[in-house]
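hiii, so i know i said id send this last week but things got crazy w the move. better late than never?? heres the sequnce for the chain we talked about at the cafe, plus the structure i predicted for it. fair warning i was half asleep when i ran it
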Amino acid sequence: MSDSQQPGSSVPAGNKPDTGFVPGDDTFTQWRNVFSILMGKMTDEGMEQFRVARDLRNESADCKRCEEQRDYLLQFSPVVRYLSDNIRQLGGDLSSHNIYCRRCTNRKAGGFDPEYGILLCANEMKDQGHLEDTMAHEMVHAYDHLRFKVDWMNNLRHAACTEIRASSLSGECRWAREFFRRGQWKLTQQHQECVRRRAILSVSARPGCKDKEHAEKVVNEVWDSCFRDTRPFDEIYR
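okay and structure toks below
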């Protein structure tokens, strides 16, 4: 073993393993990386490096597009306008001044914070429909925070309930999106299974949750009452 090699490793010390990703913003390098992905020659780490580089390169354009679509939806989307009106009736205010479009480093579509408003991850938005679903999802959280006084930090049952309602009412679990975007091809109970799956994932990521089994238990405990609760809507429209 050479002096530059660490014990138990075939990679020389100080050298990182080849991920298949080649840094560079020129067209040739970008296509080289794309073909490397298509040929299965890029590792998961390399693909993440590729995505980060792409997000950095497109940050300004992504945020500008997100802001334009956000403003359009605030004015013309029936579900966004309806939720915004109901939030206003509860004393809240969500509009362009506290719905932010930003580049996110973790792979999520958005988030809600009671103190700051809504974050939309511009680099994760696939199209305007995806943005509309994300805005509606986070606005349901805002409504629940004002209407039901959600304890975000300490009560997993509260978190599970609002996640169930947000996934069910936002439209992100409607049949077409599940079928064409996520490859969920069941014809029955698809909406319920999508809502349950997404709620469990969200609860699993919270600090007070031990593991996926714990998240499933909490979601099951509140499922019946929270899935049936469609406020402020009369029923599930999307």
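btw The radius of gyration is 21 Å. thought thatd interest u
miss u guys!!
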